[in-house]
Amino acid sequence: MNATYLMRRIGYGLILMLGVVILNFLLIRLAPGDPAMVIAGDMGGASEEVLASIRQDYGLDKPILTQLWIYITNIAQGDLGESFFFNQQVTSLIAERIGPTVLLVVVAQIMSIIIGVFLGVIAARKPNGVMSGFVTVFATIGYAVPVFWTGIMLIILFASTFPIFPVEGMQSIRLRDASLLMKALDVAHHLVLPAFTLAVIYLAQYARLSRASMLEVLGSDYIRTARAKGASQRAVLFRHALRNAALPILTVAGMQFSHLISGALLVETVFNWPGMGRLAFDSILRRDYPTIMGVLFFASAIVVIANILTDMSYRLADPRLRGKS
């Protein structure tokens, strides 16, 4: 691994994060709505004196560029500010919610890659067969259906017709005093529907991409050579073809991570999953600027890190790229 290239990628990531911070700050501050009005409503008074006092207390009376400079310098020191609504440090709020979101996104990502690639490989084995047609139709439907619609349909299906899985929350109240194993199984039970909802659209994309990549690779000379040497169909598919066909899948997996995080906001709202998406949704309704910007900053940082790791894994998987800057 080229250390210079890695440092350069990290440097680009930091510059990108600075741009994201500035853009998020300006877009949120220029959006309609006055957080002082929301806070004053919670305090039971909305006179001009009260509003002016609130703006002064939270620094909202300063010029917007001054607020931006203060915000950037605070972030550089690891301070994301204090929530207007929760009266708590944003870093603490995110720390409480990041675990459920990461769990949801990672499980959905793994589920979508495993199922999607498996379907794509099976479909590529016989391009004109029944399985290939099924995967193509499923991928088209899965890609076209909105994630929130899938979640609502699953809730309707499993809330009344087949009450097998919980349809909201992350854990059962009656198991709060149970053993660690029982709690883990309970969380996994609650995770099935939201993770599958989030994974459906992406596993459809992986199925289409892996099918196309496999078909291209299976027509290569080295695959014909492997078959001529007597390699079994399984060895040809999974040992020789899948490794090269996985390169574009790795790239898309890193790019899809940002989409998964944004999709998690909708899924967490539909299934009342206590993650960052739910926190962001509640904060938007309350005009809680520090919390909104903190969640966006954290989500952006995860996406940038995921892209760097994807780039590194791509170079590890393809030896031809290791010597290039």
Describe this structure in words.
The chain has 325 residues and is mainly alpha-helical. The chain is 77% helix and 0% strand. It has helices at residues 3-30, 35-43, 48-57, 64-76, 90-125, 130-144, 147-161, 180-218, 221-228, 233-270, 276-285, 289-317. Helix 5 packs across helix 8, helix 5 (90-125) packs parallel to helix 12 (289-317) and helix 10 (233-270) packs antiparallel against helix 12 (289-317). The mean pLDDT is 80.
Key words describing this protein structure:
325 residues; mainly alpha
SSE topology sketch:
Elements lengths: L2 H28 L4 H9 L4 H10 L6 H13 L13 H36 L4 H15 L2 H15 L18 H39 L2 H8 L4 H38 L5 H10 L3 H29 L8
Query: Could you state the order of secondary-structure elements as H and E?
Result: HHHHHHHHHHHH
> What value does the average pLDDT take?
80
Distance between the termini: 11 Å
Strand fraction: under 5%
Residue windows where pLDDT falls under 50 for at least 5 positions: none
State the secondary-structure class. mainly alpha
GO cellular component, one term: plasma membrane
Pfam family, one: BPD_transp_1
Family: Belongs to the binding-protein-dependent transport system permease family.
Subcellular location: Cell membrane
